[in-house]
Amino acid sequence: MSALLTSQYNNVQTLALQFPETSALILQVYQDLALNKQWKTIQPISIPDLQTCVLHCREPGSDWLVIVPIRHDQELSLNKITQTFGILENTQLAENIPFKKLTFGIVARDSTVLYYHISKDLVPPKEH
């Protein structure tokens, strides 16, 4: 692991430890992004109202994502999604980026991470 990646991991770990209930999820999603997907731009942001950290990141050549780590067995209702959007819109995070979509990083028991993108409004399909 490079020195930059180690430093970034230590920063994520320090923030994740503030949230014992979700720290393993935060670290698992971070590791998936940094090691499996090899994304270089990943910024953890503490969101106490969600009782977790989100990962503000982007794949090279793509838009910024706000990833909220959750367990695979955690309920994801329309109310939960609306509440999450509301909390994130009222944080410093929303000042830095146009916030129209969030991504849930759903961590399975076997450590697989599924990314579920949710847009606030209707989005036209991408052309191939």
Automatic annotation (TrEMBL):
Cited Gene3D superfamilies: 3.40.1350.10
UniProt keyword annotations, A-Z: tRNA processing
Domain tRNA-splicing endonuclease subunit Sen15: 28-127
The UniProt record lists the keyword Kinase: no
TM ranges: none
InterPro entries the record matches: tRNA-endonuc_su_Sen15, tRNA_endonuc-like_dom_sf, tRNA_intron_Endo_cat-like_sf
Gene Ontology BP, a term: tRNA splicing, via endonucleolytic cleavage and ligation
A molecular function GO annotation: nucleic acid binding
Entry keyword tRNA processing: yes
GO cellular component: nucleus
Record-linked Pfam families: Sen15 (PF09631)
Family listed: Belongs to the SEN15 family.
Name used for this protein in its record: tRNA-splicing endonuclease subunit Sen15 domain-containing protein
Species, as recorded: Absidia glauca
Upper taxonomic lineage: Eukaryota, Fungi, Fungi incertae sedis, Mucoromycota, Mucoromycotina
Gene: ABSGL_01734.1 scaffold 2091
